Amino acid sequence: MSSAMVQRADERVHLNYGWLTARHSFPFAGNFDHAAYAHGLLLVNNDDIIEADSGFDTHPHRDTEIVTWVLSGSLVHQDSAGHSGVIHRGLAQRMSAGSGILHSERNDRWRADGSRVTDPVHLVQMWIPPDASGVTPSYQELDINSELDAGGLITLASGMPAHRGESAISLHNKHAALHVARLGPGSSITLPDAPYVHGFIARGTVDVEGIGLLGPGDSLRLAGTGGHHVAGIDNAEILVWEMHASVN
User: Fold this and answer.
1) Considering the entire predicted model, what is its pTM?
2) How much of the chain exceeds pLDDT 90, in percent?
3) How distant is the alpha carbon of residue 74 from its chain centre?
4) Which of 31, 73, 97, 236 has the fewest CB atoms found within 10 Å of its own CB?
């Protein structure tokens, strides 16, 4: 049975801790089974704004593929496997928690002149499960700014054999791929035709064929349907998960 559901930005859980403004597309806080609320393979889609000199201190993860996409500002990553990096707009990051890893994510970058960055960082973080548990933890980054500027739907991360020839971050799940597009007025893309599709409007406004207008923070969950035409109304950015399996 095919279905299409729109979640509006103001329908998400909204939390404000002062240093963190968080908007969750799926239930996140608390001790519960993420899979029970998933769409396809997507367990978490968090839209976070982290103020300067703050962030998530060292904490553990296990058997989770975590992809972080920065919309503005920069995020400093460090983990117990020795990986570190500064994630910025257009630079994708994937961390495979595997058998277990500790990491921190903070907005505490310093400039070359010794001054501290004071801008907040705005990011989207997404989680999917791996195909197999207990893999060796790993980390990967990829700058796709030039590809995005050229237009179209760009594969950002994938574990699907069909995308192995593309320049994309690898995922330890052969049933999932994450795409992203920057759309301006008059430009368009076509959503993948897959059993499960999740589209998140990170910025701007788009017109989705058969659905209507979606704005910043809105998301679209498709099951058993796809191939929708998406047109940019203004300068927009959309994150699209293509999934050929479900955790449920």
Assistant:
1) 0.94
2) 82
3) 15
4) 31
In this predicted model, what pLDDT tens digit does every residue of 148-198 receive, in sequence order? 988 999 999 999 976 655 668 999 999 999 999 999 998 999 999 999 999
**CB atoms closer than 10 angstroms to residue 150:** 10
Distance CA 169, CA 163 (A): 10
Give the C-alpha separation, 130 to 175, whole Å.
Answer: 10
Tokens of 182: 């920057």
* Short-list 122, 28, 42, 30, CA closest to 75: 122
3-state secondary structure the chain: CCEEEEECHHHCEEEECCCEEEEECCCCCCCCCHHHHCECCECEEEEEEECCCEEEEEEEECCCEEEEEEEECEEEEEECCCCEEEEECCEEEEEECCCCEEEEEEECCECCCCCECCCCEEEEEEEECCCCCCCCCEEEEEECHHHHHCCCCEEEEECCHHHCCCCCEECCCCCEEEEEEEECCCCEEECCECCEEEEEEEECCEEECCCEEECCCCEEEEECCECCEEEECCCEEEEEEEECCCCC
Backbone angles phi, psi at 37, to 5 degrees: -115, 5
Query: Looking at this protein, which amino acid is placed at residue 202?
Result: A
CA dihedral 166, 169, 175, 176 (to 10 degrees): -100
pLDDT at 201 over 70: yes
Domains of the chain plus CATH, in order, are 3-243 (2.60.120.10)
Distances (CA, A) of 86 to 49, 130, 137: 16, 24, 19
